[in-house]
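pasting for ref
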Amino acid sequence: MTDAITTYRPDPAVAVVTVNEPPVNALPVRGWFALADAITAAGRDPSCHVVVLRAEGRGFNAGVDIKEIQRDNGFDVLIGANRGCAAAFAAVYDCAVPVIAAVHGFCLGGGVGLVGNADVVVAAEDATFGLPEVDRGALGAATHLARLVPQHLMRALYYTADTVDARQLHQHGSVYAVVPRAELDDAALDVARRIAAKDTRVIRAAKQAINGIDTQPVHRSYRFEQGFTFELNLAGVADGARQRFLDGGA
């Protein structure tokens, strides 16, 4: 666990996992694995009936720490980031209890991976969602964006790196509620408490059942996407794109 990932219990049956990695919640490799561990541990606790995933700061999540990748002369950090993202996304999806994502501000890249695999999404009015991957010379999380918007909109958002706001996602049914920023935590906890009041044995079985009938193999499809990221890195495309971003050119 790192200081950037914390867990507390506002109620005995509700675990709140908070990400706080200034300045923009772009997580380094250790942060993604710590987040995976925190969510998995909460779900394994029999006294926990539901998990709320939230963040402090300017936005929910800005994806991977590109500066960390660029500091590495090889591919160790890139591989670590990809594996860490896969672990965190899987932890949300496979968590033994429902995971509610409470999203504010920007939700980009890896943030979409977390939210797309969540069971319920509650968003602040200022929340925006997008995948800037193509501008960074990478691919990934189309798997998860496709769980938030229809297929053709997903493709348009992916190719253009445009964003979509919380109210648009609410219209598509992927965001459960949109509330003022100041009410986000209370709104997420309200949903969490309603779920937590149910028989956790039934809810845990329901989570397994719903995952079992899912038509999208989220783990396999995301790893498939990541294979193309490795190709782009080996071709030298990704490194240049990341550096242009850090230099302020994108």
